[in-house]
Amino acid sequence: MMNSPGHGAAGTGVRGPGRHDEEAAPDLIYVIEDEPEVARIVRATLQDFGFACEVFASGAAALRRLQVEKPDLCIIDLGLPDMDGLDLMRRITAASSAGVLILTGRGHPADRVMGLELGGDDYVTKPFEARELVARVRSILRRRGQAVGAAQGQRRRARFNGWRIDWGSHVLTAPDGTEHLLGTAEAQVLRSFMERPHQILTREQLLGTRDLLPTDRSIDVRISRLRKKIEGDTETPQVIKTVYGAGYLFAANVEWD
3-7 long-range contacts, Cβ below 8 Å, gap at least 24? Predict the structure, then answer.
């Protein structure tokens, strides 16, 4: 069922993790949801766990606000009154580095795969458990924080097989100069590969989590998106190789700047 914070968050006595420390501002989350009761529950749950939250009943309202302030994460309902949620997701990821969590009543596998292929970080179907929603939000923000921290380190750029990646901007440049803007999730996976080339990495290692469900195919979708960008033939990949029963291997030499 879709629990209210009283059932899933406030009653637990757990301190919210939205703040990294007492002085840091809480992570800002946009909730784009046109069902008032769902929006109320999501907002109350997130605020109960220490996150800052703004709610929008339409995609247009969220896009207007995005011009003024960039969120850390957007929770997007696919069935919005003024535009398709997938189109909104594309526009948000193009205009910001925010993570994206899809929250929708569409439970068909095709919708899940499409959402992840278009840049979504995770996908939750209605009805949902409040604690699960918070756990998924935390996971996306943690991965996003790891990607930002890596970009701020000394090794800002890297090269492989004529390709270049700038970790500060997430711009991947092809040998012919064509540029691709990677989403946070794609960049995190590529960074994991490039830091450990020629090594077999499990799905858990690539996603930076220990509690990955066997049915979670999000890493496979991200691998597919990366292959479409860097592989000449996605049917016989030469860079990102599948090691059946074990994981994936990045078969290229990497140079760091």
Answer: 3/41, 3/129, 3/130, 3/131, 4/41, 4/44, 4/45, 4/130, 5/41, 5/44, 5/45, 5/48, 5/130, 7/130
